[in-house]
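Example record

Each entry pairs one chain with its bound ligand, pyridoxal-5'-phosphate.
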Amino acid sequence: MADKWQNGAVRVFNFAAGPAMLPTEVLETAQAELTDWQGSGMSVMEVSHRGKAFVACAAAAEAKLRSLLAIPDNYRVLFLQGGATGQFSAIPMNLTSPGDKVAFLNTGNWSKKAIQGAQRQGLTVEVVADEAESKYTTVPAPGAYTVTDDVAYLHYTPNETIGGVEFDYVPQTSVPLVADFSSTILSRPVDVSQYGLIYAGAQKNMGPAGLVVVIVRDDLTGHARPTTPDVWDYATMAANDSMLNTPPTFAIYILGLVLEWIERTGGLAAMAERNQAKAAALYEAIDGSGFYKNPVAPNARSWMNVPFTLADPELDADFLAQSSAAGMTNLKGHRSVGGMRASIYNAMPRAGVDALISFMADFARRHG
Ligand SMILES: *Cc1c(COP(=O)(O)O)cnc(C)c1O
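C-alpha cells for the complex follow.
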C-alpha cells in the first residue's frame, strides 16, 4: 500500500472538521494491542469498565489531561456522553434554574446552537455581543460588551469550527465563564483557572467520537435541577468517577494514547508553536495567492479551521476532485459557508499543510 497516494504517504492527509485525523502513532499502538490489551487476552473494548485495568486506564487519562492542561485541584474532570451538543442542555440544567438569566457572545453557528439549548431550558438569554454585522468573521473586542452580575454565567465559543473564527483573548467577567472548547482544546496551553466550565467533544482534537470532556469548578457542581438525567448531573458523575453507567471505554483509552503522544512530542507549548506555524503558513499562502481568499479578520483567524474560497466557485468541484486524488481529503467547506475548509488540528502534520499549500499554488497556476 506504500505510495498509494500522489503525496507519497500511505495515509491521506485528512482535513475533515470532525471526526478528524488522529496521530498515526496512536492508531498503530491501538492496532498493536487491539486483540490482547495488557495481557488480558481481550481488547480494551471487551474488558469491564469496573475492572482494575480499565479503572487505571481512565485514571491515567484524567491524570495526563490534568498535567497537560495544569488543571487546578478544585476542578472536576468528567468523561461524559452526548457530545458537546448534549452539554448545550446539560450546562443550563446543572448551573441554573428556569427563569435565570445567562449571557452569550454570539460568534457563529456553534454559539447559536448553544444559545438555543439555553433557551429550551427556560433561560433568559442576553446576547451581549453578536458578530452578525461582519457575517461572523470577527470576535467582539474585549471592551465592546458588558456582562451584568445578575447572569448565572457568560458562555462563548473560543473557536467557531465552521466560520474559522477564534478568540485571541479570554473574556474577563465576574460571573463564571463557560466555554465550548470542542475544536481548540489541547491546541495550546490554557489557563483553566479563568474558567468556570470548559467542555469539548473529543472527535476534533482528543480522540474518537462518543466522548465529551467537561472540566468544571467544584462550586458549580451540586446544583443540578432535580430533572437532570443522572448521567449529566456533574456532582453525581464526579462522585462516581464518571462511571455511574458504562463509559465510552474505547474513546477514553484512545484519549489516553493521544495525551501520551502530546506529552512525548513536547506538550502543549510545543503543540502551540507547531499549530501557529502551520496556520500562519496556510494563511500566508492564501493571502499572497491572488486566487484564494479567507474572509476572517486577521486577529480572529483560527489556528484549527481555515475556510477559504476560490476565485471562481465553478472550480470548486475540480479542486476537490484533484486534491482528493492527491491524497488530501475532506476539504469541502461547510454547506453554510461554501468554498473550502482545511481543518488542521494537532494530528495534521506540517507535511500535510505543506502538501496542501503546494497543491493550491499549482492549482491556481493552472486555473488563474
Ligand atoms: C463539533 C462541535 C460541536 C458539536 O459536537 P458534538 O460532539 O457533535 O455534539 C459543538 N461545538 C463546537 C465548537 C464544535 O466544533
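Residues 59 and 108 are 35 Å apart (CA to CA).
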